[in-house]
Amino acid sequence: MNRPVSPLAPLVPDAPAPPLERLRIPPELSGVAGTNRAHNSIAQISAEDDLAAITAWLARYADVPGTLATYRKEAERLLLWAVMQHGKPLSSLTHEDLLVYQHFLADPQPAWRWIMTSRKKPGRKSADWRPFAGPLSPTSVRHAMTILNAMFAWLVDAGYLAGNPLSLARRRGIKASPRVTRYLTHELWDVVRITIENLPVGTERERLHAARCRWLFTTLYLGGLRAAEIASTPMGAAFCRRDAAGVERWWIEVCGKGSKTRLVPASDELIAELARYRRAHGLPPSPQPGETRPLLLPLIGHDKPLSRGAIHLIVKQVFRLAAGRLRARGPEWHARADVLAAASAHWVRHTAGSHMTDQQVDLRFVRDNLGHTSLATTSVYLHAEDDARHQATQTRHRLGWGKPAG
User: Fold this and answer.
1) Which secondary-structure segment (H or E) carries 155?
2) pTM of the predicted model, to two decimals?
């Protein structure tokens, strides 16, 4: 049960870490007199303390909700650690301090202060909220330090800090990108697909939930979309055109990372699933141009889009059910079940890319489908190579609802 917390929590050494908006930072730890403050340059921001400086940095990402949430999380963790555990303002942290913090990320201790005990993530107003769900993997630690490096560099450029304590970090030589490991084999993907096809439909709510899960995994897999893109893309973003041969082709226009727009081929299978999903909600099979209904509909009402977090919860629930399905086969399946239990929405995107290359879809088409490079145009007038990309995607990249496993 979520217990409400007081409006402002004083800085108590033996208290759990609260969200920043609930923490009263004493003046000596606020950064007003931080030892790394820039005093000989013209400040480009009006921030007087560390929290205000971080807020100014985060304001740059206000129009990119997914990035804002990730960056705020990392900045909040560092600031809480600095003032609650390390006893320093963020603007006094040295290179050595940040090496200590890097080790802390891999094992946030004491756990009662830093790690959530509830499997279901509590809200920020709950007394059970903590900055961490658990220790970070080496990859997540590197990602966190990369974000903080960007934050420190910006605060230096803004005239708030005198120097970037992370600029001394050891730079490794450029290596070939490692192979993606967070994806599902064809065998595990079959288990997920069959799990969705066997979701209960006894009540109206169950029927709509099953339809939503099927459509969500269709867009994640056939479209290679990110959860944030699904949350922000309206139904009316799908549109059609006819090429020189008079073939009708459907596309989805997606605004992805960095506010970059790309066109994702909507294969016949995807369009059929869209019609199936819309009929489940009593809607016409095809969206109207400019239709503002969200791509993923809530169970009640059609206007308010689901958040990225809500989409992730739905995906994780499906993966847990699929993992349970595997575990029921016997102990020899438990290791593979653990892989499914660890999977997330982004795994489906990696799975889509992996399976497209398995089916020998041209790597240039895979790149453009997933938006790994920016597209120069958002026009409905497409070049001939775009037609080839659409045809290759439709012919070789299929989900196959209803087909036998294997």
Assistant:
1) helix 138-157
2) 0.57
